[in-house]
Amino acid sequence: ALVTPPLTSAMTAFSMGTGCSSVDIPGGGITLECAPASANDIHGYYAASTRPFTLTVAFKSAFQTKTSLYHKVGLVVGDGTMYAIFAVYGNSGPQINVAFMNSYSSFNSDSSLSGIMSWPGCDLVWLRIVDDSVSRRYYYSPDGLTWILQQTDTANYFPSSSMTSNCAGIFVQTNVTAVFNVVMTVHSFAIA
C-alpha cells in the first residue's frame, strides 16, 4: 500500500486537556501521546476535506495488548463542532468501533465494539473513512490493500442531528480511568 508520511505543519492541531503532546518523526510521520489525566484528554490533527473524500491512515499504537476501554486512537471526521471517530480501543485486545462526539469533551453515543481482536501479519493498523456525500463508510485493513467494511452511515449522519464532514484527521484520547500513556505513531496519512 502507498505510504504518505504526514507532518504536523501540514495540518491543524486540536487539543483538550494538558497531558498531550506530539512530535514529527525525522523522515516523516507523527507521534501523538496522551498521559493519564484527571479529565478527558484528546489530542490530534486534522486537514480540511471537501466531499467526496477518502481518508486513509496507517499507524502503530502502544496499547494493542493492553486492556482498557478508555484508551482510543484513530480517525476523526467532523464539521468543527460535532465529530465521528473511528477508533481502535485497547479493550481485551484491540477492537474497533465508530463513536459520535457532541464536541471534543462531550460523548454522544457509539456503535457496539467489534471488529478484529488482533492485527494479522503486523502491528501496523490501517483505517479508512470514505465520504461520498451519500454515505460515510468505515473500513479497516490488515495490510493496506484488502479493506473490510466495518460500518456504513448516511453521509450527514449524527445521532438526532446532522453533520457535514469538512475536516478529517487523527487523534489519541485518554481519561481519568486510564493508567498508562496512549501513544499513536502515524506513518501514513492521505486524503484523496
State the helicity in percent bands.
under 10%
**Count of DSSP strands:** 16
Segments where pLDDT lies below 50 for 5+ residues?
none
Largest sheet: 7 strands, antiparallel
Q: Which strand order do you get reading across the main beta sheet?
A: 1-4-15-6-7-8-9
* Assembly state: single chain
Shape: globular
Which strand-content bin applies to the residues? over 45%
How far apart, in Å, are the first and last alpha carbons? 14 Å
Order of helices and strands: EEEEEEEEEEEEEEEE
Count the DSSP helices: 0
Rg to the nearest angstrom?
Answer: 15 Å
User: What is the residue-averaged pLDDT?
Assistant: 81
Quickly give the structural class.
mainly beta
Q: What's the topology here?
A:
Blueprint: E1 12-16, E2 20-24, E3 30-34, E4 41-48, E5 53-61, E6 68-78, E7 83-90, E8 94-103, E9 106-110, E10 125-131, E11 135-141, E12 148-154, E13 157-158, E14 161-162, E15 167-174, E16 182-191
Antiparallel strand pairs: 1-4, 2-3, 3-16, 4-15, 5-10, 5-16, 6-7, 6-15, 7-8, 8-9, 10-11, 11-12, 13-14
Description:
The protein is built from no helices and 16 strands. It has a 7-stranded antiparallel beta sheet with strand order 1-4-15-6-7-8-9, with no helix packed on it. Strand 2 and strand 3 (30-34) form a beta hairpin. The chain starts with 11 loop residues before the first strand and ends with a strand. The protein has 192 residues and is mostly beta strands.
